[in-house]
Amino acid sequence: MPLVQARDLRKVFIRHTHGPGIRGALQGLFRRQSEPVVAVDGIDFDIEAGEFIGFIGPNGAGKSTTIKMLSGILVPTSGELKVDGLVPHRDRRINARKIGVVFGQRSQLWWDLPIPESYNLLRYIYGIPQADYDERIAYFRDLLGLDEFWTQPVRELSLGQRMRGEVGAALLHRPKLLYLDEPTIGMDALVKERLRHFLVDTNRRDGVTILLTTHDLDEIERSCRRVMLINRGKLLFDGQLENLRAECSADTVMTVLFGEEPPADAFEGLQVLERDGARVTFGFRRGTTASGDLINALMSRYTVRDIKLTEPSVDVVVSSLYGGGEGSA
Fold it and tell me: Which of the ends of the chain has fewer CB neighbours closer than 10 A, N or C?
């Protein structure tokens, strides 16, 4: 039986609106208008114990709403959701002992105290035996590098340092599931790599099932065995990352800074992903287009100041596959 089961999972919020101007605002006090906003639109998925899954999509696609339903914070509008046999919003206390959650904008660490004080409080809350607690702390201090700021109040920590402390706090009680909502925002490359190594080690060593939301496809590729792509509340893809890229019309992105803004019709026949004055972003597939040939063709016709080759971002993948666009929650 899967650890997590979601069937036709749906979440609709009610947005209150009013007409323009002061008159509209006053009318809204007496005749309240509202409209439904579909954040998650009937998605189905299973998660097996021990999986490490990347949950990706543009801003407002429905990722955070889904995680909040999984953790019991939000009640689904309709559909079925079970986590280790429990209904998260109905069995919140029991479910909370089985999961760990890290939201980038929320903290479970005491702001004016150093990290070990918060950890010790969590030890009492979860009833963690002293020997197990000591072993967990040693593991976190080693792999997460917490000794660098172990005695500093949380309010003095950088975002990357605080997030490392948050991940440790979420795993202190040995949960079966760990939900991570954009944990690497604001981290430099070295700290991001350290956290990635820790999560992979935790997944393999302790068998913790991890659901990670991020905009960084490179991070997903190096950590996750499976990817779920959501956009506008709908689950559009569920499978291996290489299969997702195979379906994408552009597996390479080239951003070119020209000497001056090219004419509007300058790149007919090429896949232009974005134009911003003299900066133009192209997409192409390595198997069908040689980057060198494309660069030579552009340089023979225009003055080129800079060229940057990257892999497509999540937004580019979504745009290429499904027409992109922002969601609503």
Answer: N
Please report whether residue 9 resides in a domain. no
Cα 201 from chain centroid? 19
Q: How far apart are CA 265 and CA 272, in angstroms?
A: 11
Per DSSP bridges, beta strands 252-258 and 177-181 are unpaired
Is residue 49 classed as helix, strand or coil in its secondary structure?
A: coil
- List Cβ neighbours of 310 (8 Å cut-off, separation of 6 or more): 252, 253, 254, 255
C-alpha span between 220 and 239 (Å, rounded): 12
pLDDT for 40? 98
pTM (two decimals): 0.81
**Structure confidence by residue, pLDDT tens digits, 14-32:** 887 766 777 766 666 667 7
The residue segments making up the domain with residue 156 are 48-246
Domain membership of residue 30 (yes or no) is no
Secondary structure letter of residue 262 according to DSSP:
P
pLDDT at residue number 282: 87
- 78 and 7 Cβ atoms separated by less than 8 Å: no
